[in-house]
Description:
The complex is a heterodimer of chains A (110) and B (114). Chain A has strands at residues 4-7, 10-13, 19-25, 31-38, 42-49, 56-57, 65-67, 73-78, 87-95, 98-101, 105-109. Chain A is mostly beta strands and 110 residues long. In chain A, the strands form two sheets. In chain A, strands 2, 4, 5, 6, 9, 10 and 11 form a seven-stranded mixed sheet that branches. Chain A has a four-stranded antiparallel sheet with strand order 1-3-8-7, with no helix packed on it. In chain A, a hairpin with a 5-residue loop joins β7 (65-67) and β8 (73-78). Chain A starts with a strand and ends with a strand. The mean pLDDT of chain A is 95. The model of chain B has no long low-confidence stretch (mean pLDDT 94). In chain B, β5 (31-38) and β6 (44-50) form a beta hairpin. By secondary structure, chain B is mainly β. Chain B has strands at 3-6, 10-14, 19-21, 23-26, 31-38, 44-50, 56-58, 64-68, 73-78, 87-95, 102-104, 108-113. In chain B, the strands form three sheets. In chain B, strands 2, 5, 6, 10, 11 and 12 form a six-stranded mixed sheet that branches. Chain B has no helices and twelve strands. Chain A binds chain B through residues 4, 31, 33, 35, 40-45, 48, 50, 56, 58-59, 90, 92, 94, 97-99, 101-104, and chain B through 4, 9, 32, 36, 42-46, 49, 51, 90, 94, 98-107.
Amino acid sequence: NAGVTQTPKFRVLKTGQSMTLLCAQDMNHEYMYWYRQDPGMGLRLIHYSVGEGTTAKGEVPDGYNVSRLKKQNFLLGLESAAPSQTSVYFCASKLDHEQYFGPGTRLTVT
Amino acid sequence: AQSVTQLDSQVPVFEEAPVELRCNYSSSVSVYLFWYVQYPNQGLQLLLKYLSGSTLVKGINGFEAEFNKSQTSFHLRKPSVHISDTAEYFCAVSDQGGSEKLVFGKGTKLTVNP
Lengths: 110, 114
């Protein structure tokens, strides 16, 4: 099992560009989550999904969209990147009250 | 809504000394409680969790935590730390509903010095 994987690991964007972050899990988990981590802020929930075809907003959803077309994949999109979206993004999936985190994507928006 | 306060942003200790990382939470509903560890440039790894039952929870790497409902606390302890315990530690809570979204504290950076 690869667990939770994230693509890409690093990315630099210019303001206004768009991109999609991919999260994949091979554990057949129903629940998946996207968080962002900023220095001194801990992790904050962006969006989450309780199953294939479902998505819901978290604490900081503005500027992001998500899709869960397949159970194993959870995509996070930035339509028009802003410097405030410079962060480390973590994906997680959940089973039995425990969330399993991916290695993260470091995104810089200039 | 829940919130988590980690009372110390940085904790320096010497190797083989005991350590306590403090966590308080606020919630109007029953919660699950977690401690995660993050080593540099890595994702988060679960140290331990409290779901129900015994208030003293043992986790990996010799860590333990005690749930205190009256004080709404979930402090993390280790009797003797190693250099390899240097990392950032996050306390988190979730409600006991279906989505169990995690709310994290801001983290405590533990530095173990020789």
